[in-house]
């Protein structure tokens, strides 16, 4: 969590220190420990969760998990303004008549919605939500990678998905991830997603990584790759110094979106 800027208030720092000791705490327990109303703690927990410092649960909170992703319905609204701004900036990098992969994720879905100004694109995706967003355009051609459709998020994964993605080579690969280490390692929770993302990277002429700042606080186990695998990084805040140094060393272009 050191990659994120320090929490804005002493009370926020107290909440995080309490969670560091306990792992999980109820709102009532934190309110008693800190000496404020439960409603105040709920408000603080919501703010800290939106900023990526903790995981919000019914009646309490914990530190962000390294083994389990946030539910898709929660990710859809988490930091949504930032994701939409990232999508707009990333879409501005795509010329008309381009070919592109778009992978699984709520940030890549924001990117797909931002493609309204582009013309005659060819899109290959393993994300049913992305396919639904772009397939209505008569000047787009949308290709859905074959495979198993996950009911909880519309992601398409599996060996047949990888085989399907391998059939194509695109101008751009648009990928989202679940976590980033300061040394530039790109991470995800689900190994099926990891393998699909690697396939997209391998078959793209230019790779654009989309990630809001909360991903610097999360450290899943699955290694997608590192900064040497991408060409552009679109985010909503200036990354940590160590990450910036790695970006410069790998000649990765930084694009900051302003929510």
Automatic annotation (TrEMBL):
Residues 8-63 form the HTH deoR-type domain. GO terms for molecular function: DNA binding; DNA-binding transcription factor activity. Keywords: DNA-binding, Repressor, Transcription, Transcription regulation. SUPFAM superfamilies: NagB/RpiA/CoA transferase-like, Winged helix' DNA-binding domain. InterPro entries: Carb_Metab_HTH_regulators, DeoR-like_C, DeoR_HTH, NagB/RpiA_transferase-like, Tscrpt_reg_HTH_DeoR_CS, WH-like_DNA-bd_sf, WH_DNA-bd_sf. It holds the Pfam family HTH_DeoR. It comes from the Bacteria. Transmembrane segments: none annotated. The keyword Ion transport does not apply. PANTHER family: GLYCEROL-3-PHOSPHATE REGULON REPRESSOR (PTHR30363:SF4), HTH-TYPE TRANSCRIPTIONAL REGULATOR SRLR-RELATED (PTHR30363). This is DeoR/GlpR family DNA-binding transcription regulator. It comes from Brytella acorum.
């Amino acid at each position: 969590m050191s990659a994120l800027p320090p929490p804005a208030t002493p009370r926020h720092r107290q909440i995080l220190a309490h969670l560091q000791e306990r792992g999980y705490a109820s709102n009532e327990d934190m309110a008693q420990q800190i000496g404020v109303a439960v409603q105040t703690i709920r408000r603080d927990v919501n703010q800290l969760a939106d900023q990526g410092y903790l995981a919000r649960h019914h009646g309490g909170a914990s530190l962000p998990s390294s083994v389990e992703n946030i539910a898709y319905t929660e990710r859809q609204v988490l930091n949504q303004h930032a994701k939409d701004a990232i999508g707009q900036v990333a879409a501005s990098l795509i010329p008309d008549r381009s070919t592109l992969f778009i992978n699984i994720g709520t940030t890549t879905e924001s990117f797909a919605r931002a493609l309204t100004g582009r013309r005659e694109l060819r899109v290959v995706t393993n994300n049913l939500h992305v396919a639904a967003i772009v397939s209505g355009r008569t000047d787009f051609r949308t290709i859905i990678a074959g495979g198993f459709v996950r009911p909880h998020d519309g992601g398409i994964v599996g060996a047949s998905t990888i085989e399907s993605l391998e059939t194509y080579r695109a101008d751009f690969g648009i990928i989202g991830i679940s976590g980033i280490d300061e040394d530039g390692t790109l991470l995800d929770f689900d190994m099926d997603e990891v393998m699909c993302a690697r396939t997209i990277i391998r078959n793209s002429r230019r790779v654009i990584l989309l990630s809001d700042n909360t991903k610097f606080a999360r450290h899943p186990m699955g290694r997608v790759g590192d900064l040497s695998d991408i060409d552009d990084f679109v985010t909503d805040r200036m990354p940590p110094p160590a990450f910036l140094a790695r970006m410069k060393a790998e000649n990765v272009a930084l694009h900051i979106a302003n929510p």
